[in-house]
Design brief:
The protein is α/β, with parallel strands linked by helices. The protein contains 16 helices and eleven strands. The strands form two sheets. The protein has a six-stranded mixed β-sheet with strand order 5-4-3-2-1-11. α7 crosses α9 (179-196). The radius of gyration is 25 Å and the shape is globular. The protein starts with a helix and ends with a helix.
């Protein structure tokens, strides 16, 4: 970059920042929503991370024009609304599987969820505005405020840590290796910080050389992180678990047919045919998706025997099933479960989903919404006891996760103090057929892939459709069936890292330390200024 460029660029940005700060009323709010939508394009499946260098400076310049707490909150809220409206549009697709029954929920899913999630972004900008950071310190305070409320979004009211900013790096695996140290929340914090630095080029309180130097240092940080990640990948082992060969079955059954009374048996038969297809190498274990058997397996001995007939000799068929058992009052209790069936038809292992989807699997506001859960065809599911380490014949200990249980950082493995040994792999059964050919299944797979890097543990993901595959302990995809494809993939199970990653040992502790450091340095810069 020439001296002329360094002179003219801040002047142009100064005019742009002044213009954005001068916006009022609906123009300011519409611009905030537009920048929020732009930030969404940095996430899967677009993966256009450089757009964050526009979106976050734009948000900061709009925030400069806020004169009251209400205005500061509104700027962030509209940014978040635009961000989630575009990023989560696909959730409404689930309702169209039975739109005559669930038409009333369409506005709630399309706009209601973005309205609620935008509250976290609004409080983040309100906090950053209230702290009144100065110079480059305000970028630290803004990034820390954003990351704090992103973390809260992942934990408050059962949590919904979907589309965190750091997931934009799932398309660039070397940088994604950073989550093995600081987790996805830490990577989000660094990403927002660096993406905000161009705002300093238009700040008259920041010397020009310091602003350019900060931006160069931020970009160099990610270049160094990518270089370290590249070296980490270069040294990664390709070792697999001996004597284990998995067959993942993706039947791609249309969601409208999955639970149809006249189709349930036929759906199971289709999966049995796929499971019994010839293979180039002996298969030891067959894995089906979430509720792949849409019948009560624990109440049907003939069905169990039929499944046992396609179980590999000496191995298991692992499948998602609904489960019903009588409750303490005699009423039926329903579970979204996993069952392992051996060659004799006996169930030798079981797991019940513990993190249920609000409104989808249970109704949290039943007093005001006297209707049944959407995914349960009106019935509500009960929650299982939590993450477990499951011992299955012929396999290393596994942490089973059903559907979106895999999206929660630091909550995908059983706690060591609970007496369970550390699993050696994660198994995620899901059914993204609800969402059709939208961005949702791609986002879900990218999020699941990140858990493998965080924990240093391979992930096997089997979906009715979108997207099945195996991911090794560094996030490398070793086998995959694309969205909408009907078939099987046969592959070996990658080995876990010999020791847990830093994140696997301390969880969000490293992120917490980084967050406190950003707040402390930003506040100190404010007082010194």
């Amino acid at each position: 970059m020439t001296v002329t460029d360094m002179t003219t660029t801040p002047a142009r940005l100064g005019r742009l920042s002044a213009g954005l700060a001068g916006l009022t009323g609906w123009r300011r709010l519409l611009a905030a929503a537009g920048f929020g939508g732009l930030a969404t394009l940095a996430l899967p499946p677009a993966d256009a991370v450089p757009l964050l260098l526009i979106a976050f400076p734009g948000l900061l310049w709009l925030l400069d024009g806020a004169r009251t707490r209400r205005q500061a909150f509104a700027v962030g809220w509209f940014f978040g609304f635009g961000h989630h409206l575009l990023g989560l549009y696909w959730i409404s697709a689930a309702l169209f599987t039975d739109i005559e029954r669930f038409w009333w929920a369409l506005p709630l899913s399309a706009a209601g969820l973005p309205i609620l999630l935008a509250m976290f972004t609004g409080f983040a900008t309100l906090l950053a505005w209230t702290l009144k950071g100065r110079g480059l310190g305000r970028m630290l305070l803004f990034a820390a405020s954003w990351a704090l409320f992103e973390w809260l979004r992942g934990h408050v009211f059962t949590g919904f840590p979907w589309n965190l900013v750091g997931y934009g790096w799932t398309g660039f695996l070397p940088v994604l290796q950073g989550v093995s140290l600081i987790g996805i929340y830490g990577l989000s914090l660094l990403t927002v910080l660096v993406a905000s630095l161009p705002a300093g080029l238009a700040d008259a309180a920041v010397p020009r050389r310091r602003a350019w130097g900060a931006l160069a240092a931020g970009l160099a940080l990610f270049a160094a992180l990518g270089a370290w990640g590249g070296l980490r990948l270069a040294g990664a082992s390709d070792a697999t678990v001996p004597d284990v060969r998995l067959r993942l079955v993706q039947p791609a059954i249309d969601q409208r047919l999955k639970w149809a009374a006249g189709e349930r048996v036929r759906n199971v038969q289709q999966q049995m045919e796929l499971s019994a297809a010839p293979s180039s190498e002996p298969i030891t274990h067959v894995i089906w998706a979430e509720t792949a058997v849409p019948l009560f397996l624990n109440q049907d001995a003939r069905l169990r025997q039929a499944l046992g007939s396609v179980t590999p000799p000496g191995g298991l068929l692992v499948t998602g099933v609904p489960r019903m058992e009588p409750g303490p009052e005699g009423e039926p209790l329903y579970y979204n479960s996993l069952a392992a069936v051996d060659g004799s038809g006996a169930v030798t292992g079981r797991f019940d989903k513990f993190h249920l989807v609000p409104f989808g699997e249970y109704m949290p506001l039943r007093r005001w919404l006297p209707v049944g859960a959407i995914a349960g065809n009106g019935a509500e599911f009960s929650a299982g006891p939590g993450p477990v380490s499951l011992d299955l014949k012929g396999l290393p200990p596994v942490s089973p996760l059903i559907c979106y249980e895999v999206i929660f950082p630091g909550a995908v493995l059983p706690a060591v103090e609970e007496g369970a040994g550390r699993p050696r792999w994660m198994l995620n059964l899901t059914n993204d057929a609800w969402y059709g050919n939208t961005a949702g299944p791609h986002q879900h797979f990218a999020i699941a892939r990140t858990r493998a890097v965080e924990e240093g543990m391979p992930l096997v993901r089997v979906a009715n459709t979108g997207i099945s595959g195996l991911v090794d302990s560094h996030g490398r995809i070793t086998a995959m069936l694309p969205l909408g494809h009907r078939g099987v993939v046969d592959a070996a199970l990658p080995e876990a890292l010999p020791t847990p990653t830093l994140y696997g040992r301390v969880g969000d502790g490293a992120f917490g330390l980084l967050l406190l450091t950003c707040f402390a340095v930003g506040l100190r810069a404010r007082h010194r200024g």
